């Protein structure tokens, strides 16, 4: 019974992403939230203590990026999370908050409006109207500065922003990613002097299309006025992505490096990591670093680790170095991430003696499994596989599980191909011998609270896993989202209330 994980390419990420972080917070309940202040609050005035953790963003009313204006250090969901974890046997859930403003080091922004009046920002809730957010408080200040520069270029060069109704215009989106890893600066200066990798999503098939002259002119403008030789020295590099599809997918498959440094490095979890613009990167670099430092403590030295939903392999490679892992296997569906993974591996310290690999299959012989799925949570087939690891009796499983019979019925060739390409065998037939090589620890990193709860309940109700520890991180201040780090051990799960159990995980494709 090959239990496989994952099959089709996931839907594009929402335009907005978020994350949280450090210093354990035990704040009073949100009932004590202050009354809304007047919008005319001067940013220079010394705010009363109750407002010190307020957003103070001029775009809050119209922008969908943030949903909460006050108590940014303590998202409202914390109370629910604390109760949830208590109910499943973890009474020492902790929550770390982090930088409350200027935390977002990665943003995908829509470009609309006109060349005279470009709008660069996020969709208004429930619409396709773009809200211009030049003074966004979540963005790293370098992102706001690069957006300003981009607007100047659009206007001076008469670049037409994309028109969704007509499918016309040149510039559709921009992705801005900040590296805070300039080692020529003292450590204390690096974050605020972050440099931006600008990726322009251009409405053409490739760099030979008729409007490519404009693309080059815009890239040159950005580089001349923002690159290393400019006064502001703000831009790390300029990239193009080509996308002509009329669907909502932000990026096309074709990427081109145009100007500046090709390689983009960040330093998190104790290692230098390379991140191409096509690869997933965490938005809140600092909070992610805090989470990784905690995660490392749960991985015994010398372990074998499988990092599922690995992106460019940041988690697995950080463990290879800091926990001297015997082996690290990274599994990821986006082929584009592999190059970044390889560059990171090349830069790992020489003394690292792990067997490190990029995998689309075979995670059966591991001690620790790390999963970091997108917001929709674990793929149903992976949940099935994890549930079927029974610690109570290491007995062989039949090959007639419901998921695999569903798999047998699959006829669509592209699904079969994608499944083949992304197969991860957790265990075929689980024999008592095999069970010794099945993972003993499952570390679940989640940015989707609702899907996490569902997955967690399914894992615990299978009795294959018990939850040992849970930590929350303020990855996305201003929103309801938190990042969760949960540590499961193979063994008897706690019994959950009946009504919560037995729910079949819906396919969240
Ligand atoms: C939340 S990101 C985490 C990436 C990485 N762990 C990190 O922290 O940078 C989720 C990753 O899962 C990948 N992904 C989504 N569905 C997948 C699947 N079915 N199989 C493998 N990878 C998948 C995405 O491409 C993305 O890189």
UniProtKB/TrEMBL annotation:
Membrane-crossing residues?
A: none
Q: Which GO terms describe its biological process?
A: methylation; RNA processing
Keyword annotations: Methyltransferase, S-adenosyl-L-methionine, Transferase
A molecular function annotated in GO for this UniProt entry is: RNA methyltransferase activity
Please tell me where S-adenosyl-L-methionine binds in this chain. 282, 309, 332, 372
Q: Which residues are responsible for catalysis? A: 447
**Which family would the database say this protein is a member of?**
Belongs to the class I-like SAM-binding methyltransferase superfamily. RNA M5U methyltransferase family.
Could you tell me what this protein is called? Uncharacterized protein LOC110764414
């Amino acid at each position: 019974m090959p239990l496989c994980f994952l099959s089709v390419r996931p839907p594009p990420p929402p335009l907005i992403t978020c994350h949280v972080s450090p210093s354990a917070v035990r704040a009073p309940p949100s009932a004590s939230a202050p009354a809304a202040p007047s919008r005319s609050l001067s940013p220079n005035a010394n705010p009363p203590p109750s407002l010190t953790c307020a957003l103070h963003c001029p775009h809050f009313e119209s922008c969908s990026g943030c949903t909460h204006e006050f108590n940014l250090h303590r998202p409202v969901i914390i109370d629910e999370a604390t109760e949830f974890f208590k109910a499943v046997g973890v009474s020492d859930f902790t929550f770390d908050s982090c930088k409350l403003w200027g935390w977002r080091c990665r943003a995908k922004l829509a470009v609309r409006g006109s060349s005279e009046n470009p709008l660069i920002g996020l969709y208004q809730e429930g619409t396709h109207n773009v809200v211009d957010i030049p003074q966004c408080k979540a963005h790293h200040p370098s992102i706001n500065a690069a957006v300003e520069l981009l607007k100047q270029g659009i206007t001076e060069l008469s670049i037409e922003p994309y028109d969704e109704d007509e499918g016309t215009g040149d510039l559709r989106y921009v992705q801005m990613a900040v590296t805070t890893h300039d080692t020529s600066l003292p450590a204390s200066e690096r974050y605020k002097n972050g440099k931006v990798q600008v990726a322009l999503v251009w409405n053409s098939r490739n760099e030979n299309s008729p409007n490519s002259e404009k693309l080059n002119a815009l890239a040159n403008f950005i580089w001349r006025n923002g690159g290393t030789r400019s006064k502001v020295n703000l831009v790390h590099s300029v990239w193009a992505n080509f996308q002509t599809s009329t669907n909502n997918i932000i990026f096309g498959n074709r990427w081109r490096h145009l100007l500046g440094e090709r390689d983009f490095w960040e330093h998190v979890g104790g290692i230098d990591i390379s991140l191409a613009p096509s690869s997933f990167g965490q938005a809140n670099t600092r909070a992610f670093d805090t989470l990784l430092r905690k995660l490392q403590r749960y991985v015994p030295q010398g372990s074998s680790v499988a990092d599922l939903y690995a992106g460019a392999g940041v988690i697995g490679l950080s463990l290879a170095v800091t926990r001297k892992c015997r082996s690290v296997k990274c599994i990821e569906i986006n082929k584009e991430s592999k190059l970044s993974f390889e560059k990171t591996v090349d830069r790992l310290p020489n003394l690292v003696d792990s067997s490190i690999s990029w995998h689309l299959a075979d995670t059966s012989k591991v001690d620790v499994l790390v999963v970091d799925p997108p917001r929709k949570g674990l793929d149903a087939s992976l949940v099935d596989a994890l549930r079927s690891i029974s610690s109570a009796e290491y007995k062989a499983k039949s090959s007639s599980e419901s998921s695999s019979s569903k798999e047998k019925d699959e006829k669509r060739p592209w699904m079969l191909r994608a499944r083949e390409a992304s197969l991860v065998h957790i265990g075929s037939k689980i024999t008592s011998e095999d069970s010794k090589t099945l993972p003993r620890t499952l570390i679940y990193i989640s940015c989707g609270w609702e899907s996490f709860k569902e997955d967690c309940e399914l894992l615990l109700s299978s009795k294959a896993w018990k939850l040992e520890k849970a930590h929350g991180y303020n990855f996305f201040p201003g929103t309801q989202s938190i990042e969760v780090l949960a540590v499961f051990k193979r063994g008897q799960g706690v019994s959950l209330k009946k009504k919560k159990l037995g729910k079949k995980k819906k396919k969240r494709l």
